[in-house]
Write a structure and sequence with these properties.
The complex is a heterodimer. By secondary structure, chain A is mostly helical. Chain A has 4 helices and no strands. Chain A is about 75% helix and about 0% strand. In chain A, helix 3 runs antiparallel to helix 4. Chain A starts with 7 loop residues before the first helix and ends with a helix. Chain B is mainly alpha-helical. Helix content of chain B is about 55%, strand content about 10%. Chain B has 5 helices and 3 strands. Chain B is globular. The chains are: A mainly alpha, B mainly alpha. Chains A and B meet through helix 2 and helix 3 of A and helix 3 and helix 5 of B.
Chain lengths: ~160, ~100
Amino acid sequence: MQAPQVDYAALVVFATNTLVIVLGWIVVHLLSARRDREKVRGEMLVKSADNICLQMSELLLLARSYHTTDRSVEAEQRIKMTIQDAAQSVVGLRAIAKSQENVKKCLKAVREVRESITGMHFEDEHVGPVADNDQVLERMASAVMRAKLCLTNLKHGQFA
Amino acid sequence: MRAINVARDFTRFPAGRYARNGDTSGEAFRSRFLEEPLRHGEAITVELDGTIGYGSSFLEEAFGGLVRSLNSQPDDVLKLLHIESSDQSLVDEITQYIKDAGAAS
């Protein structure tokens, strides 16, 4: 009885096709995984930036109330903790943001918020409520607005 | 190099500018931990992490006040003073206060 003949040409074609299919699957899988990671990273950054924006709004209200009423040590501590939390959240964005330059700008903006709220008429220098048109209030509002703008730019920079 | 951790060695609740208004103020921190070593040319590391947060008036008085109280140049203070914090904005702010205090004097 004669042994069956192996069709080497067909075998090579089969092996090549299989290899192309496997390599194609690997490439598609890697690209898909990368796209999913990018999507999650972008969503995480947007969510964090939105949360910091909310913190900034609440901080402005809290600081405005603090400066326009009698001194409150509890409010001082809440203000300092909120600013510290916001700064730490911005620091945390370094790990996921595309633009480190934008993160630096946001951190500088948070610093300006801290200076505007706690640099004057704060703690032992709070000697009584300030008027509604006081410069301290104007500076705080401007600094918070700038910080929120920085955070918005950071968010939008993800999709540039 | 001497290392001072504000939360461990001073207070977790730093507050206020002037020592007459409280012993957790910036001035109290400066006079208790910073002035003497720096006057003798000793390098100091100040670790800021671990407190509930800082007010700018505390930071200005503690660090900007060093230039005024020692009557020294900002560069000399910055050579000896090393600030550590996970929040880079605090380090930048303190550096700026030291430079500004030099420019104002």
